[in-house]
Amino acid sequence: MQVSFPGLGIDVTVDRVAFSLFGVPIYWYGVIIAFGLIMGIVTASFAAKKLGEKSDITLDLVLVCAPVSIVFARLYYVFFKWDSYKDNLVDIFNIRSGGIAIYGAVIGAVITAYVYAKVKKKNPLLVFDIGAVGLITGQMIGRWGNFVNQEAFGSNTELPWGMTSKTVSDYLETLKQSGINVNPDIPVHPTFLYESLWSLAVLVILFVIVYKFYRYNGQIFFAYASLYGLGRFWIEGLRTDSLMIGEFRVSQLVALLSFVVFGFLYFYFCSKNRKKQ
């Protein structure tokens, strides 16, 4: 499949299959997600050491959180797309056809990390802090799996980095036929790239907090949830495949709530900590 960035004069050939193992195709999407998990362990390990925890806590977190996160990511998607699955429940388990939601994964990871912290008799907020660094790393890298699959892109744009491909054009044609005002012949926002770059910026900010401004347990997690929510709010507004509640985009609502609530918690506890000093 050829992916083009006409404004930049760039054409890229993308193959969803990375390689075959014993005749079984291994997709780039899976490879990228696996690489994201590995790098998440690496970055979270640095944070763990700086925060006074052994680095092996990050591997424990991945082993217990990753499977649950995948399940929650799928359940979250299916819940808001129930009309597409209610008449064929078997399709719920066909995850290879696509259909997972990052906020579902985050919810699953937070719940599992909380249970892990209680079992291990650790401060849950400290565990969340370490996990947040790994999460944003995985999100930053994992979004490139959307590029390989040519999914999670935005609406039409005339910006020079606008992207197009046959998959994009076919999808826009389907939307156009359903009455949505899009043009299959015009490139779209590469929103996967926007979110990857935003996640990189958030990761840098989190490490600045880890090494320079860490004052209380939960500070990194609050910053992660608020900052990611801020970026996701405007990026989600560009997308054409959002999960919806009536006329509202689910992820935009969750992102806005996260930005406000966790932003408040971040500054509230920062202020409270300064008063103690």
Architecture overview:
- The chain has about 280 residues and is mostly helical.
- It has helices at about 30-50, 55-80, 100-120, 125-150, 165-175, 190-215, 220-235, 250-275, and strands at about 1-5, 10-15, 15-20, 25, 165, 245, 250.
- The strands form three sheets. The protein has a three-stranded antiparallel beta sheet. A two-stranded antiparallel ribbon has the order 3-4. Strands 6-7 form a two-stranded antiparallel sheet.
- A hairpin with a 2-residue loop joins strand 6 and strand 7 (about 250).
- Helix 1 (about 30-50) packs antiparallel against helix 4 (about 125-150) and helix 2 (about 55-80) crosses helix 3.
- The longest helix is centred in the C-terminal third of the chain and has 27 residues, at about 250-275.
- The model has no long low-confidence stretch (mean pLDDT about 90).
